[in-house]
């Protein structure tokens, strides 16, 4: 089989000289002198260590002395990484270590076996060859010596293949986490922790898991290693819809890294395909079953001319269709003296390993990375693309942690695609903000670049290259800004450092900060500070004789090291150390930073106490921290918290101190957080856990100004909630409660340095969410401190400070008066809801405690300015007070009522769509409190309700039977309550007769004097402003209650306000007019005669008038008079008043309406017009000369509208 591997980008097949510089040696096997070839590469000091360890004795076949501590795992070398085999198969392979596996092997790996449990060490040749294979290109080895013994060359080739499965897993699946990828249920089984496995759809479909399955299924065959080239075939088993396929795989490697891969499956993905994984794992797990050959050039050198010719001819014959054209072309060039191929010394050998100039890094398909990112971005956040991009970012972090140079390379590719996203230009042109999820991806991009440029061991030229690229991206117009919307005028992250080159830059002249600005600034940072180096490199760095107590002292009073640097920058260093695989160094620096923060906290408290009297007298303060740590782009508090929490996270067996090794053994154990033994620089009784909690509380309690822009403000809220969510996962014990008490007391006493201090700036970030967490945590242990903290946090000064002087009686206006600053507080509604949640939590906890309830009520009334939130609190208090399983809490009910009354006052003169709901709820609440509460709200109704609400909802509900039954009222109490309701009704009717008169009449029905008073109010208001609709409604009510004459009077008053034009034949008042005429007709001729002139004056609609006329001629007026007495009489004559007047008005209305209609009539309305004339003729014929009048009317129409020939023809057909 021939596998042709294309060269890796930037890498070609290395040319080797055609002449051979050594001869195969015959004779006895090599002794220690063989390994001496490699001494210059591994160092003489290391060689001496190997001598002492007994490796050379093993080389000579002698047994080493018993070791106190095992230096190698069974089947592995002492220097092997997880999954690495110490021995190899094939000619010249070293001996395999022997010994048991399973748990004993794991213990042996940790050096925990009892004394006397020894195993044979590796040979010196293997140790030396392994070291050389890891660090040196093979060309450098060849150039160093004229002749290299074949066993040495063979062992270098053997050890040059990767020995750890972790990197294979990293390049064939999502984030691998910390567990051993080869272990059952380990990283391979959870290839995407924290939700990544869900995004990967089915974990078993990941290339790494599929590769393991192929390997375990015996699908790997024909494995051959020729020099630095591995090939083989992998058979994909037949599936339901797909036949069995055989894939040819070729892998090139160098210095324990796979440098190129090819597979005939045609995989198009970022990750290695399952076939590459299967072949790689086969070589790692079964090296003794892989046939190993030296580079092909070595084999060719051993052939004579005839053998070489036979070799070439057989090769061409076996693959003539593929290689014959290429073979002929090469032959022609070689035979040509002046050809380019003859100008180059030697010939390429793809199996000869790397040259000196080759970059040593793992194979990464750059094109696929770019295509995948471009695809995810084009999906705009749909189909899980945002989650996929986050997985790619996690992959970058994983590479950085493994100190893989592809991390920066992959991030560069991702960033280029982000910068090329066409939506950036579109959003900039339209002035549209990017989506929140997309914005968070940019944040992660900037944070990753920050980690990369802060790599403590990167080369200067590498950092310079990154800086150049970052500046290029930063200069692009569409590069997103750091705060999402607005330029940030905060100082840059290096301004606190003497090593920062931009420390004195004028912030007013600085351009907008982009997502790359902090990474660009971080390029000015370095790690050469001797104090910093001592901090991160040693647990013993102390100075107990140091007595400098200044603000920037290097050590504290304990002699422990401090690190004074711009806090987000210092924490960025911690994140960089963690990201690049230096967890212990990161932990040491994190502890120094936290100790510095605690010392600064104490110093700030002392400063405030010295100035407290003066500051409290002024009552104002300034922001001491322009840059908040929670919500900061670099997330400093989150970084410190995570670093410390990782340090106190242990498995079930508590193998702390061996975490770097135990994480690779066996299955992943459940994790929990414990108080681990105290660190060198912690107080007695403290642990990493207490330190993590304390730094979180310090950051959350920091007073900081609210940033500009919607996104920046939302990020403050989001990060605060995320940090609190992490704190809530920790079980609080007595040790942690001491920390809570300590920080709560400090925050209350620390003045302007604390968000819970006595005086804070009006634009500082509110503490409601944080205080709620503190309150619930402290309440079971220290209720007084819990309430004191929560009550202090209730304030929302940004609203109070904008209220006009003297207008505090209307706090509901404040919500609309946003601070006079640009930009606004975009998250104000969320902040107010958190304030409401804090108050609700306190109300719930204070149930049954009168003093605390009163205090909480006062705080709510003083600090909450949103009527909807106060109403919610009132409802919450009501629900808590009236739980089904307990008696009502009267104190809490009163609190609920007080809050409800405040809502009524706040919303009395404003529009609120929930107003009716609020009024009804208040009456319900007052009913639960008692009759005196109902009486009180009715007596003070004018400060709480509108007249309409007071009569239609409040008084009506109070007078209902259900309320009487609910309160168990006696007759005296009922009458007293009814009297209050009638008084309210009359007052409302006087103030708003239009809307309250009917309700007042209804409420006063049972009291004659009150009813007459209400009726008189109606009469007085009828001529001043009541509409005909309101008067007709009251008139109908009067008729229904048995007052027809009063109804008639009100109806006549209503008619004076009415005006119906000729075309309003569907007007809603028509029924009222017909009812009024019917009422008048029933009362008698005089009443009818009195109302008809009003009808004629008010109604111009012909059809309505004809309807009234027809009804009046059907019965005798007064047939059913007052008191049910029947009147005898004749039908009224149409020739006499009042019906003659009505008839003439009706005919006149028909004539006017006809002319009006004909002015703008269209053919589609002709038939309707003919029917209208038919009704008009019926009315005309009611007069004694009606026939003549109608004929003259029709003739007149024919003459005037003779131009409308079709219409006039229809008129002639119907009317002659």
Offer a concise description of the structure.
This protein is 53% helix and 4% strand. It has 1216 residues and is mostly helical.
Structure description:
GO terms for molecular function: zinc ion binding. Residues 1-24 are annotated as: Disordered. Residues 247-284 form the SWIM-type domain. One of its GO terms (cellular component) is Cul2-RING ubiquitin ligase complex. Keywords: Metal-binding, Zinc, Zinc-finger. This protein is mainly alpha-helical and 1216 residues long. It has 53 helices and 9 strands. A 5-stranded mixed beta sheet has the order 5-4-3-2-6, with helices on one face. It has a two-stranded antiparallel sheet with strand order 1-7. Strands 8-9 form a two-stranded antiparallel sheet. The protein is elongated.
Query: How widely separated are the two ends?
Result: 112 Å
**Total number of helices:** 53
Shape assignment: elongated
As residue ranges, the low-confidence spans are 1-11, 20-32, 50-117, 176-201, 486-510, 651-671, 802-823, 1120-1128
Largest sheet report: 5 strands, mixed
Helix content: 40-55%
Number of strands: 9
Average pLDDT confidence is 80
Strand order of the largest sheet: 5-4-3-2-6
Structural class: mainly alpha
Keywords:
9 strands; five-stranded mixed beta sheet; mainly alpha; 1216 residues; disordered N terminus
Secondary-structure map with pairings?
Elements: E1 14-16, H1 32-36, H2 39-42, H3 44-53, H4 55-59, H5 102-109, H6 124-135, H7 138-144, H8 150-159, H9 165-170, H10 196-199, H11 207-216, E2 220-226, E3 229-236, E4 245-254, E5 257-263, H12 274-285, E6 291-293, H13 296-301, H14 305-318, H15 320-335, E7 347-349, H16 366-378, H17 385-401, H18 406-419, H19 422-430, H20 436-453, H21 460-474, H22 517-522, H23 530-537, H24 567-579, H25 583-618, H26 636-647, E8 649-650, H27 659-662, E9 672-673, H28 688-701, H29 710-728, H30 734-749, H31 768-778, H32 783-793, H33 797-800, H34 828-845, H35 850-863, H36 867-881, H37 890-907, H38 915-929, H39 931-939, H40 947-958, H41 961-967, H42 971-991, H43 993-1003, H44 1008-1022, H45 1028-1040, H46 1044-1055, H47 1070-1083, H48 1085-1098, H49 1102-1112, H50 1139-1159, H51 1166-1180, H52 1186-1200, H53 1205-1215
Parallel strand pairs: 2-6
Antiparallel strand pairs: 1-7, 2-3, 3-4, 4-5, 8-9
